[in-house]
């Protein structure tokens, strides 16, 4: 039974590894790997209070490193793995959306200020 539970958890982790790899590949050219990794580190630090096992997930130069989490998978309650990774992704996307919002608002504000300045010169 324990082997079946471990296999299910490995399957869940495998899906998240693939999904998150795609996310990193798509977002890195736009925001830079350092920015994406910094957001992930911040989310891991914040979420580790609620999910201590999330600390097994490391952020390397090229994205997330799953070895620590995979090595300790047998110690984790089966139902917690999926929930932990869902919450990690939710908070990661929320932080990313906030960043995008700040970029868009900042750009809009600069453009509006430039337009106002040009109109004032006329």
Describe what you observe in this structure.
- By secondary structure, the protein is mainly alpha-helical.
- It is built from four helices and two strands, in the order H-H-E-E-H-H.
- The protein has helices spanning 2-31, 33-47, 67-71, 78-121, and strands at 58-60, 63-65.
- Strands 1-2 form a two-stranded antiparallel sheet.
- A hairpin with a 2-residue loop joins strand 1 (58-60) and strand 2.
- Helix 1 crosses helix 2 (33-47).
Distance between the terminal alpha carbons, to the nearest Å? 78 Å
**Share of helix, binned:** over 70%
Give the percentage of residues in beta strands: under 5%
* Structural class designation: mainly alpha
Largest sheet: 2 strands, antiparallel
The SSE string, one letter per element, is: HHEEHH
What's the β-strand tally? Answer: 2
Number of domains: 1
Strand arrangement, major sheet? 1-2
Mean pLDDT: 88
Low-confidence stretches: none
Key words describing this protein structure:
single chain, 122 residues, mainly alpha, two-stranded antiparallel sheet, 4 helices, 2 strands, 77% helix, 5% strand, elongated
Short structural summary:
With 122 residues, the chain is mostly helical.
How is this fold's topology laid out?
Layout: H1 2-31, H2 33-47, E1 58-60, E2 63-65, H3 67-71, H4 78-121
Antiparallel strand pairs: 1-2
Helix pairs in contact: 1-2, 1-4, 2-4
């Amino acid at each position: 039974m324990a082997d079946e539970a471990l296999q299910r958890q490995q399957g869940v982790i495998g899906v998240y590894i693939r999904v998150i790899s795609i996310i990193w590949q798509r977002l890195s050219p736009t925001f830079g790997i350092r920015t994406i990794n910094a957001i992930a580190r911040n989310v891991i630090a914040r979420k580790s209070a609620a999910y201590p096992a999330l600390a097994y997930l490391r952020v390397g130069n090229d994205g997330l490193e799953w070895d620590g989490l995979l090595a300790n998978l047998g110690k984790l309650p089966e139902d917690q793995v999926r929930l932990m990774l869902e919450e990690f992704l939710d908070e990661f996307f929320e932080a990313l959306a906030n960043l995008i919002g700040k970029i868009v608002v900042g750009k809009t504000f600069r453009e509006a200020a430039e337009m106002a300045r040009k109109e004032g010169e006329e």
